[in-house]
Amino acid sequence: MVCYRKFLSLLSVAFAAMSVFAQSGTNSPYSQYGLGVLSDQTSGFNRGMNGLGLGFRESNQVNFINPASYSSMDSLMFLFDAGLSGQITSFTENEKTLNANNADFEYVVAGFRAFKHVGVSFGILPYTNIGYNYSVSDYLDGDRNMVYTNSYSGSGGIHQVYFGLGWEFLKGMSVGANVSYLWGDYERAVINSYSDSWAKTLSKYYTATVNSYKIDLGAQYVHAFDKNNELTLGVTYGLGHKLNATPRCDVVSTDPSTSTPDTTSYSVKKGLAIPTTLGVGLMWKHKNQWKLGIDYNYQKWGSIEYPVYTTVGNTPVYQLSDDYYDDRHKITVGGEFCKNAYSRNFFNRVRFRAGASYATPYYKVNGQDGPKEISVSAGFGIPIMNGYNNRSILNISGQWVRSEATGLIKENTFRINIGLTFNERWFMKWKVE
Predict the structure, then answer these.
(1) Is the pTM of this model over 0.85?
(2) If we measure between CA atoms, which residue out of 33, 36, 249, 23 comes closest to residue 130?
(3) Which residues contact 116 (CB under 8 A, 6 or more apart)?
(4) Contact, 194 vs 148, CB < 8 A?
(5) Each residue of 386-431: pLDDT tens digit?
């Protein structure tokens, strides 16, 4: 009964987090493209290694980026992991710099072993984030008596709730799957105005609501060379498909002489989609002290169309374009060191982590490739040791991310990630003599 009450309490926390996820986790003007800025869908221990983890099998952490890893969970424990982040971003363009701050509640996940060799996980996390607000002003066609201003703003994003299973069907061989529900919406606006109040203006408003599914499959194979060294191969596959969404574009033309706005609406049924994805990772473990790995992730965005407002001849249209997205590639290297995870000495149980990544963009900006991304991180897994619990872990990491493309805005972000993994022995049977 006590476990049941705790389970209901954790579910309440998870569902309460849904309202928090409605907030944007970015200030980036690049979130105006595509589905927004792709979220770093990793938990606290992965982030110390810059998102590494396709080949990691942790009995005391929820590694939801590869569902096959759930089969490694300890049979006596219930894991509950929640994380948040805070960041400072510097935007630079034409030697001008602007700073912005942002904080976000990142994820809530849980996991436990349901049966022998079968692990279960569920949770809530962001999929994409949209949040920006800026304006551009200039003289109209060189006429210094007329200044135009285009204001750009957007908010929203897509969120994900998942349920997953991992099964070790042969010794050293595991498979798993995450089945997710995607939901969310976005609102984007480009508002046109002039210094002359009698000039005709044209503004565009883009909206969409998403309610769809997502399926991710995973597998892991562990090969032990000897009692001190083993290698794990991890593979993931995500199913790409059309989303249940009808993006809409409202074009508002206002003539000051009549003071009556003229609105033309366009829409594209099932105009949004998510890509097929593939991930491959290796993790080498030595004496359960060193864990070093490399991950490669591929997202097939280039085969997806995206709705774009444009003019064909003299006719404005809102239609799908196959020249908006690019395939995305990301490679990550990193690792973890822990001298002795079971030592009574506090410092011997601390986990030291570091990682680095390089990623290409998944969208184009005015016909050219968007910003490439370079990032590095370092962090700690700090054991919580007291009279009530000596198995939980506080994961803290710092991450630096640089996004840059020729002729576009440069972004430098410093982010602090904090995740707390509660590790409770709910399923232990006590024997009294």
Answers:
(1) yes
(2) 36
(3) 75
(4) yes
(5) 655 667 899 999 999 999 998 899 999 999 999 999 887 654 444 5
